[in-house]
Amino acid sequence: MSSIQLRSHRSEDLELPRSRDTSEAEEREDAGSGTYSLTASPPTRKKQALVLLSTFFMFFQTIGINQSYGIFQEYYTTPSTTPLPLSQAKNLAAVAFVGTLGAGLTWGGSIFINPVVARVKDVRWVTVAGSVMMSVGLVAAGEARSLWQLYLTQSLCYGLGSSMLYFPMVSMAPEYFDRHRGAAMGFILSGAGCGGLVLSPITRLLLDTVGLRWTLRLLGLLTLAVTLPISFSASWRFGRPQGRTRVNVSLARKPTFILQSLAALLQASGNFVPLTFLTTFSTTLGYSSAFAAVLLALNNGVNTVSRILLGALADVIGRQNMIVVGMLGSAGCVWGLWLTAAAGGGKAVWVAFVIGYGMMAGGYNALLPTVIAEIYGIQAYSSVNGFVYFVRGIGAFFGSPVGGAILDSSSSSGKPSEYMNVIIYDGALLLGASLCVMGVRFFDAAEKGRWKLKA
């Protein structure tokens, strides 16, 4: 069958078919090259709507739960509510690792999931299994009475299951959109913030009314109800990719790829620190646990709107430009607002941080998949996206636990000033990520041999 190679940096540009020998020779040199059938017809609006909604709700449930872990962090570390032995509950780094391990596996599992997806005849075997694993992990976590049991259930089982659903769905979505890909992906990824907005107060309410065991049981059942129908909708527009799932060595040596990976590592590490400690820091300022959950929901709500608005704005001013602005804004919020709140700036400054950081952080999270497709091409999207998110998973593993270890080393007076070193650490991570995405912008233009204001 004839094939077409999607090799342009712009996904809308298609090269004409070439001879088999020429095509295969260039495939061997191309990172993550994939062959797609010419018989694929343009997607209907109905199909695009289905992709938008199903992927949106996938993000709603998987990443929404990850971004709501701060509620559990506060519950697990409070002596009067924790199901853990007090010696374990006092270890903030170890408790934080429950959430970051689950979130890290959601992304880091790509290096294992993508090769499987490229080989199975029906990807729904993977997505359905992932939906079930997520639900089982949450339900089983309700029975945990020790950290190692939480690691097995709320972290390992849930995290691997969410990765099995996440990567097939997120890899398929960009194929269905061309000119408005930034806006489409912004809407899709806004599901993560929307999930946190809805699930954070619900989780807090359930913990206060029915306790930990039934809260996790109900979250598990809700996860199954939301994700199981989604898992049956997974389908490729151009057919199952037949190319590599690993990144080509020649591409991996490029400055853009190296800096893109380093930015992903640092951003993921820094991004989870405020989310993990938002509720506990709020209580040091004098807020109740219930209102702290409201602030976490507010952060996620702003993040939801941000992903949609910044995704649409990125189609106008350039997607890489928008990522740079979002990263610099995130670092600025941490250094300027959170640090001021910890130094005695008070509640108003802290609320300003909750809103400002939610707005700025949405840019990178919403636009990364689109930028990857734009820089490396659709044909390499699956392999590059899989590796970059694997690196993000590694970053998520150590971001909040290191922050917890820093906090553990401080005095235990319960004052906001105890968080000063954690904030400096987080700000350094996000500033480093900002410099990296600026480097990606520069070297991408250099490799293309032209500088454009909009990129």
Automatic annotation (TrEMBL):
The UniProt record lists the keyword Transmembrane helix: yes
Segments traversing the membrane: 50-72, 92-113, 125-142, 148-170, 182-202, 214-236, 257-278, 290-310, 322-342, 348-367, 387-407, 419-443
Transmembrane in keyword set: yes
Stretches assigned to the Major facilitator superfamily (MFS) profile domain: 47-451
Source organism superkingdom: Eukaryota
GO molecular function, one term: transmembrane transporter activity
Predominant location category: membrane
Membrane topology type: Multi-pass membrane protein
Record field: compositional bias (Basic and acidic residues): 9-25
GO cellular component labels: membrane
Chain positions covered by the region annotation Disordered: 1-41
Compartments where found: Membrane
Keywords carried by this UniProt record: Membrane, Transmembrane, Transmembrane helix
Family recorded in the similarity comment: Belongs to the major facilitator superfamily. Monocarboxylate porter (TC 2.A.1.13) family.
Protein known as: MFS general substrate transporter
Species annotation: Morchella conica CCBAS932
